[in-house]
């Protein structure tokens, strides 16, 4: 590439404070000899086993984007920190942010939460056939366990099924995922006048220059092939009069590059993939199986994932899956907020499970609020029931010429950005939020009625039908809209092949933080990322599977969670009702204090209130007879919501600038020196919370209580 500079190597800090931090002495902000600042956040606020380290750090080249956690390698390389600056074809310098560093690896070794080690036997029994093995009804053995049935999980399952048995574990029905609700489409360079470089530039600009450039190039380059694969599998996308794919344009894109199926693209992709999965004899679908915790063990200094515990929410039986490889594709955490476009299943289960399993988490402060969810309060006929998830009004409406007005029919977006309605989502969401607060109004209006009726109905039939049942004809009147929580740009930190720092654990989709989105996701890049990384994770997963064996005694290595039948229906109902109220309180705290516009005072208030609320909830549970290894859907979702909320708040407090989706009035400007990812990884164990501990380690939790 033109203008690429060599890595600038910076020696590791070696002063006294850094030494203390590496040895786990104290919790303080420190500054090493290289000038880089680190934030240690302890006291159990984040909860891995109770104490975490948040690092705003530059990254280190790790060869081909693979994760390498060998301490020996780190020593051989001198543990040098590097910041790669590249000036490619973009308008400003872009950080070359290779996803993982050997330096982070070293800290992970030092700060890793201690846990009871289970020996990894060398002479495991090998499974050669493609059928699953069951020792009893409550334990199942597979080569691959896939958690989640969205586009990432299904696409991955179809590929690895060619090499072994696959369990697809999904929380509700197989079709219920964030994928189903994706309206706009999939972005890909399929037009001769478009280019990979242009797609890269749009992605990086939208991401506020925090994107990983190598990841962006990989995704934008491989995207078109992933679209062609979907078409070959039977996915049907809209075509123009010339017979070619109809490519739409959305906010932040410089070209028409959005492949779509009217305004139900996700549903069409899900349909095609599900049909293929259900026909594959090597794939078994487990619906209504809620993933509780990953099953991990220690192999020396490595954490190894060997499967997952689940709760069959229909039979209330705990089912243990032992697997050689686990893919986490469980989606996001939209329900930490009261209003979200995400389906009810999006309670941050995957991020929380991975965090408790000592996986590295990154960039959780960047929560995307979609600017335009349907505002029920502005409909002529209001829905009789509160929606579980807000109805999305796709970005493509603005891409097709939709205009935003306040209730006085004054167009306002040109005041905030020269791109007006086509500005990236973070800009549009803040513009709407500002209008609502200044004018004390509850929604704004999105008008597409100036376009031909036939075009509106053909491009947005689902939106038109939804609005019409509440008395609104979008071909004649504007649509009431309001921002809603939509997408987590942060998540489990992944390398270029979906690998994590936990051996045998791969991630893809919204649960992952690959570096593609940076500080803000470009419209229609989410399905694209899921497709690309699901495919990239296949070969390393197969290699890991072939080099691993299954031990039928492994199921006995961990204490088994159990359902609280002994508590009785009255107490159980009281706990469920209490948990629902706590959930609403948590969501209210997040919306009020950790929303579109933030401040240090609001974030600290949220941190304090969430800690108090969690302590109150856990105290209530145990007072009513709940035991640490008990499981129930509502309680387990609640512990995951607490975990993700705390990750978001602590990450936001660590970023002292406004970038992309993270806007704070105390640090309203971009700071070039802070153009770094936020990294959260486990720290030394102190007193934690029930929500922060893997259930099979709950004996440790009890020992830590005063």
UniProtKB/TrEMBL annotation:
InterPro entries: FAD-dep_OxRdtase_2_FAD-bd, FAD/NAD-bd_sf, Fum_R/Succ_DH_flav-like_C_sf, Fum_Rdtase/Succ_DH_flav-like_C, NadB, Succ_DH/fumarate_Rdtase_cat_sf
Region (Disordered): 1-28
Basic and acidic residues bias: start-end ranges: 15-26
Similarity-based family: Belongs to the FAD-dependent oxidoreductase 2 family. NadB subfamily.
Catalytic activity: L-aspartate + O2 = iminosuccinate + H2O2
Pfam families in alphabetical order: FAD_binding_2, Succ_DH_flav_C
EC id: 1.4.3.16
Cofactor: FAD
Function: Catalyzes the oxidation of L-aspartate to iminoaspartate.
Main subcellular location of this protein, as a coarse class: plastid
Protein name as annotated: L-aspartate oxidase
Compartments reported by the entry: Plastid, Chloroplast
UniProt source species: Ziziphus jujuba
FAD-dependent oxidoreductase 2 FAD-binding domain span: 143-527
KW Oxidoreductase (keyword) present: yes
Pathway linked to the protein: Cofactor biosynthesis; NAD(+) biosynthesis; iminoaspartate from L-aspartate (oxidase route): step 1/1
Keyword terms, alphabetized: FAD, Flavoprotein, Oxidoreductase, Pyridine nucleotide biosynthesis
Upper taxonomic lineage: Eukaryota, Viridiplantae, Streptophyta, Embryophyta, Tracheophyta
Residue intervals of the Fumarate reductase/succinate dehydrogenase flavoprotein-like C-terminal domain: 583-669
